[in-house]
Amino acid sequence: MVWGVAIGLVALALLLYGISIYNHLILLCNRVENAFAQIEVQLKRRYDLIPNLIEVAKRYLSHEEQTLLKVVEARSAAKAALQKVDSSQESLRTLEQAESTLTHALQGLNITLEAYPDLKASQNMLSLTEELSTTENKITFSRQAYNDSVTNFNTYKQSFPNVLISAMFARLKDDRKTLEFEAQQLESVPKVQF
Predict the structure, then answer these.
(1) Does residue 86 belong to any structural domain of this protein?
(2) By the 8 A CB rule, do 108 and 101 touch?
């Protein structure tokens, strides 16, 4: 009888410990999803600013259509990639590539804009570039917060005995992927000051 009670108490303690691990895994998983949602908010803000930037620049850059077209196409591709993103590594890599292309297109536009002092002095352009610069910073911070959340989730999930609990649930089974940056992106943040 005493052994039965002791075994029952040990089993109950193990069950409660397993539930605690599961709940913490869910908490960390939700933090990862929330961190990615913050990236989405900032990327959408960036996508919303670009058409306004193009409209202001169009008046001065009528003969620079190729540069403007690259930005518009890159924005469309990045926006489409964001809409298709899920937790798979492939969709995150597609988003990263589209964002990289957009960043490079914006850098090309900024280089072109430097040749037009009237445009650089425009109050609308100054306001838009300031907003874009602020948004770029927020994207960087959001990506860092996301990568930190992913690292915390993966580290907790991979430790023993947590790995046994996470293996039982499809939502928790796979490691989350961090958003990687190309070396060129790290070295050359888009300049938007005029």
Answers:
(1) yes
(2) no
CATH number at residue 76: 1.20.1440.20
Q: How far is residue 157's CA from residue 13's CA, in Å, rounded to a whole number?
A: 20
Q: How many domains does the chain have?
A: 1
pTM for the full model?
Answer: 0.78
Q: How far apart are CA 76 and CA 48, in angstroms?
A: 11
- For residue range 6-40, what is the model confidence (pLDDT) as tens digits? 999 999 999 999 999 999 999 999 999 999 999 99
Q: Residue 158: CA atoms inside 13 Å, Cβ hemisphere, count?
A: 9
| 36 belongs to a structural domain | yes
Map tokens 């039965």 to a residue.
4
How many other CB atoms are there within 10 angstroms of residue 137's CB atom? 12
Q: What does DSSP assign to residue 88?
A: S
Residue 53 in contact with residue 129, Cβ under 8 Å? yes
